[in-house]
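Same chain as my last thread, 289 residues:
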Amino acid sequence: MFRKQLLLILAILALMTMACQFLTTVPSIEYKTGPTVTDEINIPLLDDPGATAQVELAFGAGELILRPGAEGSLVNGKATYNVAEFKPNVTLEGNQARIIQGNGQIEGFPKIGDNYRNTWDLRLGVTPLDLSIKAGAYQSRIELGGLSLKGLHVTDGAADVELSFSEPNQVEMESLRYETGASKVTLSGLANANFTSMEFKGGAGDYTFNFSGELQHEATVSIESGLSNVTIIVPEGVSTRLSIDGGLTNVDVGDQWQASGGDYIVSGDGPTLTFIVKMGAGNLGLRNR
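reply #2:
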């Protein structure tokens, strides 16, 4: 399964790279496989219940599953792998918790042909936290609804990611940042993230932003990408203003979006979502649901 997923991700990376006329050399790393090992992971709650935990996940290639449900812990779950270098290193120093694949150096992609296995299945607790995810070529399913995230920062490479907030974030998120390479990323339930500002930077890829959920206050969203397909979905009745910087962008506008002086507007009540979109080229779809 992992081999097929990684092949697909690398194929997307290669095609997008050629489309942008970049000459990029991606190092290929060959590892020795062994028996499949499962490590149990448990990071206890902080000694100070009022402190904000700084949680960092550094993941190379494979599959990352992340969701709520770490009762009585800051983070718990398991890591399953069959390469010794993939063994996670788990540390807790003060309020800083880290789960790092191997030595934390993502040097390249595993050489295609070997039957690698590397899966993290982790749960997060309800304590207030700043979450940082750093990854390479991976597939990920992330559910963050109902947590107390004060900050979220994701940095990845060739990725296939579905990240959602199915329930409202329990605290106001000061900043949501996502930086990616040639990838397919779907972010949903974003109004539930309860952020003040969101910044997304992507290369060549396919990106979907669904702002379903409960928008509790004014929010600003900056989206910057290269040659890509970008879809923005805003719930019906949510006040929205969007400006575009990109002369080669094809804009496909839904029924409720109205052009106004170079901007696109959706009339509605309550807080306003303000978008600033910068695209080198590609397709931008504006939708309501």
